[in-house]
Amino acid sequence: xxxxxxxxxxxxxxxxxxxxxxxxxxxxxxxxxxxxxxxxxxxxxxxxxxxxxxxxxxxxxxxxxxxxxxxxxxxxxxxxxxxxxxxxxxxxxxxxxxxxxxxxxxxxxxxxxxxxxxxxxxxxxxxxxxxxxxxxxxxxxxxxxxxxxxxxxxxxxxxxxxxxxxxxxxxxxxxxxxxxxxxxxxxxxxxxxxxxxxxxxxxxxxxxxxxxxxxxxxxxxxxxxxxxxxxxxxxxxxxxxxxxxxxxxxxxxxxxxxxxxxxxxxxxxxxxxxxxxxxxxxxxxxxxxxxxxxxxxxxxxxxxxxxxxxxxxxxxxxxxxxxxxxxxxxxxxxxxxxxxxxxxxxxxxxxxxxxxxxxxxxxxxxxxxxxxxxxxxxxxxxxxxxxxxxxxxxxxxxxxxxxxxxxxxxxxxxxxxxxxxxxxxxxxxxxxxxxxxxxxxxxxxxxxxxxxxxxxxxxxxxxxxxxxxxxxxxxxxxxxxxxxxxxxxxxxxxxxxxxxxxxxxxxxxxxxxxxxxxxxxxxxxxxxxxxxxxxxxxxxxxxxxxxxxxxxxxxxxxxxxxxxxxxxxxxxxxxxxxxxxxxxxxxxxxxxxxxxxxxxxxxxxxxxxxxxxxxxxxxxxxxxxxxxxxxxxxxxxxxxxxxxxxxxxxxxxxxxxxxxxxxxxxxxxxxxxxxxxxxxxxxxxxxxxxxxxxxxxxxxxxxxxxxxxxxxxxxxxxxxxxxxxxxxxxxxxxxxxxxxxxxxxxxxxxxxxxxxxxxxxxxxxxxxxxxxxxxxxxxxxxxxxxxxxxxxxxxxxxxxxxxxxxxxxxxxxxxxxxxxxxxxxxxxxxxxxx
Length: 834
Ligand SMILES: Nc1ncnc2c1ncn2[C@@H]1O[C@H](COP(=O)(O)OP(=O)(O)O)[C@@H](O)[C@H]1O
Ligand SMILES: [Mg+2]
What we know:
By secondary structure, this protein is α/β, with parallel strands linked by helices. Helices cover 42% and strands 19% of the residues. It has an eleven-stranded mixed β-sheet with strand order 2-1-15-14-13-3-12-11-4-10-5. Strands 17, 18, 19, 20, 21, 22, 26 and 27 form an eight-stranded mixed β-sheet that branches. Strands 6-9-16 form a three-stranded mixed β-sheet. A hairpin with a 5-residue loop joins strand 26 (799-817) and strand 27 (823-829). Adenosine-5'-diphosphate (ADP) binds at residues 42, 44-50, 54, 74, 120, 429, 446, 448-449, 453, 455.
């Protein structure tokens, strides 16, 4: 066949609108032109979906995979391909109403439809063998997010940290976070402004916090993080100031309601939302994945489409660049997802795709029947426009304006008048094709579709088509027990085997069984001190009121910022009249100890004290903060000397060791100062001593010299007397020399004594220093040992209740015989008491 050309899509034949004639000129569309995307507009029934299904069929034959978003369910028709074109092939898929309207039996109508398809295809040069080729070339799957009618899709993955770098792609990552958060908030009915909404800012910050650390998020983790954010600061404000706990808790509750809804389970299992698995089978056959979302609510659709587009962007960015068509993304009817003024979460990723996908060979094909509600600015890069029949002049002008700016963008010029005239004369299945890669526009009629275009399929029909399909890769089953839905309270047929129907306003949880019947029996043995023979053991749920949460102990004076968790079970016992917190059991319950389903084969006790009325729970809830403030005291240790408080949870031993270390540091500091202070004085003294010692040494030498001199002088005088020399002068000289010598000796002695004094002084100073240092050391040592106890009471504002629910606490009702063969029945807890 002349239209079987690789890389060229057979869309139809040229059509002369003036003479209303189909021409024999094939419209073969170059697949590569799709990398600049295509936009298809036309009124309902103008044949848009038919045209795009043709395009997808051609892509499938050409082994180009496709992601198809199908808001109305029309594109599911891609699976209705019957190579033999037998009436019985059509029989199950015909529109029964159409048959009735035509006054035909279903069988007759099926025959007619198969005939019309055979003829239609024939007119366009096609036959069953081409249908077979289509079916063989590509795997077609209908995915149903949020439902198990088709192949379910797990959105769990979509909160995982994307494999993008914060250095290179921070803008993209932030956009993705924004979209994810908006879509998520949309699910709980919060229409949030990303810049001003507290909810949006907090969630976006949490996403960024986790994703920056390459930590995957899921809804449960997010819910916990909302209540206890790992970040303390949002902009200039403290988290609690910016978004008080109470309000955060409400947000967490609202998100939790999504998880708790039974219908949400189907969002969590199935093929994980990762693009490669939707583009090919595990063994590499190209795949067309149709995401059927007709059954979803508007926020759910928005959520899913946003998640999917985000995933596409991330996947795309990891692909090497190309100029040929790698894959298609087709959205049938983008009404509401790409509006001109509003900014729904789907819009930004769509803009990003239209801007960037080209480089990665991803062609985006969009259709709409509503040309007014469309952001044409986002379409200026779109190379191919398929314009079909339009309803009003206004629609026509709008499309022409959009096309004109797109043409200007690509350097072309649009003859608006000519186009306007052409558009006005278009019939069904006739389109005006404007392709920037082509010289001139053409009008053409779409070829007959190989798929049986019977219109939207219902969930049941989708199920029929997909019942034998299993998600192939990345199948995810529910992991967390806490995500199991709460069963709808049923009107109890018998109080014993069903939980009583409490008001649906009351949150109910089931405490996990953490103790077996055997263990409970041996506890009874311990308590009674005798061996027992168990006759029967029955798991019995008793209603209790459970409160779980955190208490903040914040005291800037003490540099204290601590949180303590609490879990209280208020258990009505047969003896006590009223239900009160005073007798409540403090239990250790982790998240995983709280289930939303009872164990099977359990019985339910109806405690008359617990009426199960919302009113009663409300009053219990009101009384809780006061009770906690009275009973939950944080005992701190205080060191008056050091002015330090122990931290919550810091034992005396640890606190002492910390104090010792602080004492040691303080002591060293003081001793350093002391040394400094003494050092100067010591230095002065020691300098003086050194000088004295030197001068003593010098004078000593001098004195010794003078002694010799005196001896010589005296000798001379004596000799002079003998020799008859003038002796007076000599004698006086000798005398003075003697005197001098004696003076010298005397100063030496004095200096020596002075030096001695100095030495003593220095020693004393050193001793003094030592003593002072000891005082300091002792003082700091003692400081660490003298502790006072400081009780710290929380205020009502410090109490955060995270979970307040009617909790079914499991017990073992054990009937046993004692040694005397008398029978007893006791009830033992089957849960962990703290
Ligand atoms: N290419 C085609 N081959 C056969 N029938 C077609 C084709 N295109 C449209 N039709 C018929 O016209 C009907 C309406 O066309 P459709 O593509 O669904 O319109 P739109 O999507 O613009 O509302 C289809 O249900 C089908 O019966
Ligand atoms: Mg359509």
